[in-house]
Design goal:
The protein has 397 residues and is α/β, with parallel strands linked by helices. It is built from 18 helices and eleven strands. The strands form three sheets. The protein has a six-stranded parallel beta sheet, sandwiched between helices. It has a three-stranded antiparallel beta sheet with strand order 7-8-9, with helices on one face. Helix 1 packs across helix 7, helix 6 packs across helix 8 and helix 7 crosses helix 8. The two termini are 35 Å apart.
């Protein structure tokens, strides 16, 4: 089956995470993603990650999967000329440099669109291409803070916390990929490309539910609440007899009654303090104490079995080890193994979401630096071997 984006060619010039994750998403669904990297060094993601067996990053094989790596010094006139030639044959140019960088290199959208009117330029930055903050350096963590996420993440009596992953970068990349698909669809009607301007802080802000009208209309400011959802109960993490944690979400009236039946506490739904959604929210802390006293007497596996059988939403707090071992994950192939020259069969997360007719897939893990120089420069652009050797000698590729 042909992947849905198999007729799309993407030039990826970004580094680190936001731009490259957007490229990963497009490549997951079949786009030909040609990643242009600095000669000799490549994307810093090649070195990122806390654990690096054999000196190799375990993050790079994931974020660069399905991509073709070519080297190109974008700071040189010859490198910029290569980009222009590639743009002639591309659908999308993806970048996450600080605003104005492409323009300084003579690669503005105005110039590139004269070469290829159908080109879509996808720009991922901290603050966007316009506005007073646009020239600032902007990492994902700063976007998370400005977009409102950091303030509401963590425990109430502690400083704002990180979520544990680079969520700001990933959200901006996801919105950038969505914008790319929207621009490609619009091009089918107009024949013209356009600029997709994805700001990290705006991607985070877009996910913040009713945060803005709550303050503007009701004067309510959301605060950090740890694992609970304020006024929604029971919905929390509860202890078990074997010192594991189990998350139970039984806040709807019908579901709460099922939980009470499992607990053998039919008195709880009849109690005016817990009979309704609003009442349970007002008495959240004491209800959580009652439930925790019960869960603490039962091993986690048995507790989850009881809850699942009763139709109460519940689950364990998974580590990577738990994810890999889970039979549901295995049955749906949510984790797959990809061949890697250093690690053999390398497990990583599969493509999401799933398409029934034209699914995406992982063809290869992140490639070696410049692994596709000959394929792209000779096969696509028609450079001769001597021309390629000359570019290599001068450090352009």
């Amino acid at each position: 089956m042909t992947a849905p984006l198999s007729d799309i060619r993407v030039l990826e010039t970004g580094t680190l995470l936001a731009g490259p994750f957007c490229g990963q998403l497009l490549g997951d669904f079949g786009a030909e993603v040609i990643k242009l990297e600095d000669p000799g060094r490549g994307d810093p993601m090649r070195q990122w990650g806390r654990e690096k067996p054999h000196g190799q990053s375990l993050w790079w094989p994931v974020v660069a999967r399905n991509k073709k790596s070519v080297t190109c010094d974008l700071r040189t006139a010859d490198g910029q000329a290569l980009v222009r030639r590639l743009v002639e044959k591309a659908d999308v140019l993806l970048e996450n440099f600080r605003p104005g960088t492409l323009e300084r290199w003579g690669l503005s959208y105005e110039e590139l669109s004269t070469i290829n009117p159908g080109l879509i330029l996808v720009r991922v930055t901290g603050y966007g291409q316009t506005g007073p903050y646009s020239p600032r350096a902007g990492f994902g963590s700063i976007g998370e803070a400005m977009g409102g996420l950091r303030y509401v993440t963590g425990e109430a009596d502690r400083a704002p916390s990180r979520s544990g992953i680079s969520i700001g970068d990933s959200l901006a990349a996801t919105y950038a990929a969505f914008g790319t698909l929207a621009a490609l669809h619009a091009r089918e009607r107009t024949g013209r490309g356009q600029v997709v301007d994805a700001a990290i802080y705006e991607a985070v802000l877009a996910m913040m539910e009713s945060l803005i009208p709550e303050w503007a209309v009701a004067g309510y400011r959301r605060e950090r609440t740890g694992p609970i959802l304020p006024n929604v109960a029971p919905s929390n993490v509860y202890p078990t007899a074997d010192r594991s944690d189990v998350l139970i979400a039984a806040n709807q009236d019908t579901v709460f009654r099922r939980l009470a039946d499992v607990m053998d506490r039919p008195d709880l739904p009849a109690d005016t303090r817990y009979a309704t959604h609003g009442a349970r929210g007002e008495n959240q802390a004491e209800l959580d104490e009652i439930i925790a006293a019960w869960t603490r007497t039962i091993p986690s596996a048995k507790l989850l079995s009881l809850l699942h059988e009763a139709g109460v939403p519940a689950g364990g707090i998974y580590t990577a080890e738990d994810i890999i071992a889970d039979p549901h994950v295995t049955a749906r192939q949510a984790v797959i193994e990809v061949d890697h020259p250093e690690f053999g069969k390398l497990p990583m997360q599969n493509v999401a979401p799933r398409l029934s007719g034209t699914p995406g897939g992982v063809k290869w893990a992140g490639p070696a630096l410049g692994a596709h120089n000959e394929e792209v420069y000779q096969g696509l652009l028609g450079l001769t071997g001597d021309e390629l050797a000359g570019l290599r000698t001068r450090g352009i590729i």
